[in-house]
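Q: Focus on the chain.
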Amino acid sequence: MSAASISLAIGTTAAANVTDGATTYVPPGVSVTVALQSSTGIKRWIVRADNVIGGTNPQDSLGGFTYQADTGGTFSTTFFLPLSASVRKFVSETLDSSNNPTKAAFTVAALQSPALSFYHRAAVVNTSNVNVSNMNVVIDGQTLIAGETVLLVAQTTGAENGLYTCGAVASNNCALTRSVDMPSGAVFPTPVVVEVEKGTTIGNSLSTTWKASNTGAVTIGTTSLTFYPRVVRGAANLASNTVNVTNLWIQSGATGTAVCTNLNATAQISTINTGAGTGNIIMQGANASGTGAYTFCLVNWG
């Protein structure tokens, strides 16, 4: 079993301060350590924990402990969250030198069962870099509404890629929050596959399937995720017996269909050669002839 460590500073204004209502996600079965350190200026602080919710083994419970320090101090505890539905809730209370109280509740939870799935769903996929705090809801010919999920695949910061939920819509914009199906901090095995329900561009279809090409475990919000659609369809013009498709969502090493058909003639391209880099593929053959656009179907994976 691996271990997870969570360190929180109580009663400070630092970034490590306990955020009321925050949840830290950990994989099921790991050893979790929660360590808390009171700050100067705190007259009293109390940390309480309830029993594990969803646990069945009494040894998995912290017994509803209460820890109190009247002059500051430290607290540390280690426990297991063995089940996918296990949740550990904490409550902290502080009093400063003027007896002003501050309360905060935080949770440590094992990943819920849906989050462990390889397969997820999104209403649309956004193939442009966006401001997650203020995204335009018109995407790929569709209009996202509050509560729907969008897959981001082209963020300048790759760790921002993933599933998000659209918030309240105002002036065709909404703020995005990480989807509960793929929350920040969650650790996923690969592959991560997302079924996109609607759209008009990628694959010339109303739906597409995308997969993160990463290997090994990924941490949402930390690991840079690289998504590619399963299939890319389109058209490109013939030049010197070659159809050169560029600037699409094509993974290095993608393959093509056995036949790439000319729209204006019966000539076909029967040999598919992938380009040297991501986003480029060359299709050519001795029997290639004719003019105009050729249809193509490229398979990234699957």
